[in-house]
Design goal:
It is built from 12 helices and 8 strands. The protein has 322 residues and is an alpha/beta fold.
């Protein structure tokens, strides 16, 4: 299915700046929104660090990016978000080679996977989508402080909306968080798989606003936290989920999807829009459309939600002193 890209050129021309000399780290660049973001920021002159699990897909994506952007500067960094030791090693590798980081885009994510634990004992969705990005940001924060405009960009989704945080989702409870749900539940995007996904995507938001609150408290203005969502975009995320029984790709829902290019525009604006301000939230107003600046819902800034997220992540990976 070919989907027309409608808004990429406008965003690049009107809402990005020259990125020459800037260093950008992006997780999950083998396909979809992360791949598009890496490609477009490299075209704008950025040195782009590609953080992925080592795989044939990662190798092929690097080759494809190099072919599409011959003048681009890309660096592959091995990083498995389902393994805290790998995340720390990735941060160490970046710190050995770079003395400054301008943008960290926590883009990678998984969706509605079975109720399984990582090797660290956490739910696979929560660790991949939420706790590991917290850890990566914590480890790379000293490099972001050295930028004149450091940005932490977190990628959420419409799944952010729903019940508030529960501390159990941040604990070593992988494999014991409700099971996989029924076929009917999964077909209607409900049940325990989707509850775990919701918690992880809400956590992308509460991390963003918890971090920004700490930056504000310390009077730090050269680093900002930003948030984006892709709307409904046709990426590999849906394919992976369908393969594990989480959703179907055959229904009318996915026929509404926009292209990966248009889905990436929220994070591209957050990474490169010269007018972006601390706490800005970019994405389409509905399932598809131009990425505008959105008002964050109350749920995303609720003090209890912020506390549960921050305390849960710190209990997993250590204190994050801003």
């Amino acid at each position: 299915m070919s989907i027309e890209t409608k808004h990429l050129n406008t965003v690049i021309q009107q809402h990005t700046r020259d990125m020459t000399g800037r260093v950008v780290a992006i997780t999950g660049t083998t396909s979809g929104t992360g791949y598009v973001c890496a490609r477009e920021l490299a075209k704008r002159g950025a040195t782009v660090l590609l953080l992925n699990r080592e795989s044939e897909r990662a190798t092929a994506a690097l080759a494809r990016l190099t072919e599409e952007v011959p003048e681009g500067r890309f660096e592959a960094v091995a990083c498995d978000l389902q393994d805290f030791a790998s995340v720390r090693a990735a941060a160490d590798a970046i710190k050995r080679k770079h003395d400054r980081l301008d943008v960290l885009c926590n883009n990678a994510g998984v969706m509605a996977l079975p109720d399984q634990a990582t090797r660290d004992g956490y739910d696979v969705q929560m660790q991949t989508n939420s706790i590991s990005p917290f850890l990566l940001t914590k480890e790379l924060f000293p490099l972001l402080r050295k930028s004149d405009d450091g940005r932490v960009v977190n990628h959420t989704s419409a799944a952010r909306m729903g019940p508030p945080h529960e501390a159990k989702y941040f604990g070593k409870t992988g494999g014991d968080l409700g099971g996989d749900g029924t076929d009917a539940e999964n077909a209607s995007f409900s049940g325990p798989r989707w509850a775990r996904y919701h918690q992880s995507k809400l956590a992308n938001c509460t991390f963003t606003y918890g971090l920004q609150a700490r930056l504000d408290d310390k009077g730090i203005t050269n680093v900002k936290a930003l948030l984006a969502h892709p709307g409904l975009a046709a990426t590999g995320l849906q394919t992976t989920t369908a393969q594990t029984g989480g959703m179907s790709l055959e229904g009318d829902f996915m026929k509404q999807a926009q292209s990966p290019e248009d889905g990436a525009l929220g994070i591209i604006r957050a990474c490169a829009d010269p007018a972006a301000e601390a706490g800005d939230f970019f994405g389409p107003e509905g399932w598809t459309g131009f990425p505008v600046k959105l008002p964050p819902e109350d749920l995303l800034k609720d003090e209890t939600n912020l506390r549960i997220n921050w305390e849960g992540c710190e209990a997993a990976v250590g204190a994050f002193e801003v």
